[in-house]
Amino acid sequence: MTFFQALIVKSLMAVRDERTVYSVYHILKGKKSSQSIQDAHLYSLQHLFQLYPTLTRNEFDSELKKLQNDKSIIINEDNSCRVLDAGKSAVQETFRNLDLPIYVEGWKQQDIAITFWKRTSLLVQVMSHLTRRQTHYYPIRRETELLLWVKDFFNRTKFSRDELARKAFEELQKMLSGQNFENPYVFVLRLTGANRIGFTAKQAADELNMEQTEYEFRFMNLLHFMIGKMNEEQDQFPLLSSILSGMDKHLSLTNSARTTYQYLLKGKNLDEIAASRGLKLSTIEDHIIEIALNVPGFEIAPYVSEEERHSIAEQLIKTGQKKLKPIRDAVPSATYFQIRLVLAQQGGTA
Predict the structure, then answer these.
(1) Cβ neighbours of residue 201 closer than 8 Å, sequence gap 6 or more
(2) Which sign does the torsion angle of CA 193, 196, 201, 205 carry?
(3) Can you state the percent helix, strand and coil of the chain, rounding each to 5?
(4) pTM for this model (two decimals)
(5) CA separation (Å) from 265 to 3, 259, 298, 317?
(6) CA atoms of 103 and 228, how far apart (whole Å)
(7) Which residues form the Helicase Helix-turn-helix domain (predicted)?
(8) pLDDT over 90 percentage in the chain
């Protein structure tokens, strides 16, 4: 079993037969729908959210077919899945051999990690050319927002270009040598400079003799470690930490849910928010679910009575499942929104 197959099977084991196999696909890809966000929380898969943003449905289906052929899983007619003993054993063996501390926090940090990598890789390329007095080259990132950020970064710095390059090298070396769980080349091979073109993920994986999906996981794991280290020890990595400036590192909300939250803070009710934003009430309810999952201490009492909350929680304990319909059948007075809200408040534990 490959690393990626083991990751899929482990995720399928988490959702059991309560969701379809594609709930796992949407979590790995990072689909920012209310259902995928809540599923990631309900089944404790937040750390894997959006770790494979380029994953296609065909690629995922291909891996499922191999797992079926290997007798690791059985996919039911409704696209739910049962993991067989052979699959469970293979997953245990794969991760036992991996022996890797996990730093990835996909839901909380992946957007930040992606932006940090884009900024850092472009900054390293620019500094490499500037220190060699080379002004004609093609930037590896062409997004206008990134190019403007780099320009602003150099305008704000008090260091000369040579000093800046030296400090960047020193901090990156200190960061990468300060950990012992990963080969620094997982990161370094991807960097582009004046005299070399950075490797693609596939090229780096081949160079390090890894399966590409394992390399991609290790690369992101290292990035997330670096971000955590910078947040904890900003004074030790002032230049690298400054690359994170302007990124929202607090509430993990989608932009639309964040806007709804701002309306809530102003005392608006759901109908008023829907009218003000020109959105359906069901969309605003999805935002409330997301807010309940991510804002500590968010109070759900305005949306679900204590009696209904108790009845829903009782059914969660009784059934040990997180399927909505059986709970709705048992508590007909509760709406699906209210059931999802109680699930969200409990952090996905039944």
Answers:
(1) 190, 212, 215, 216, 219
(2) negative
(3) 65, 0, 35
(4) 0.83
(5) 44, 10, 11, 33
(6) 8
(7) 256-343
(8) 72
Q: pLDDT by residue (tens digit) across 143-155?
A: 999 999 999 999 8
Token output for 264? 């809530």
Pairing of strands 81-83, 73-75: antiparallel
Phi, psi of 83 (to 5 degrees): -90, 125
Strand ranges in the chain using DSSP code E only, listed in sequence order: 73-75, 81-83
Q: How far is CA 4 from CA 45, 175, 268, 279, in A?
A: 15, 27, 45, 38
CATH among 2.60.40.420, 1.10.10.10, 1.20.1250.20, 3.40.50.150 for 3-98: 1.10.10.10
Give the domain ranges of the chain: 3-98, 106-243, 255-345
- Sequence-distant contacts of 159-163: CB under 8 A, at least 24 apart: 161/127, 161/130, 161/131, 162/131
Amino acid, res. 60 = F
Tell which CATH classification among 3.40.50.2020, 2.60.120.460, 3.90.120.10, 1.10.10.1390 matches the domain 255-345: 1.10.10.1390
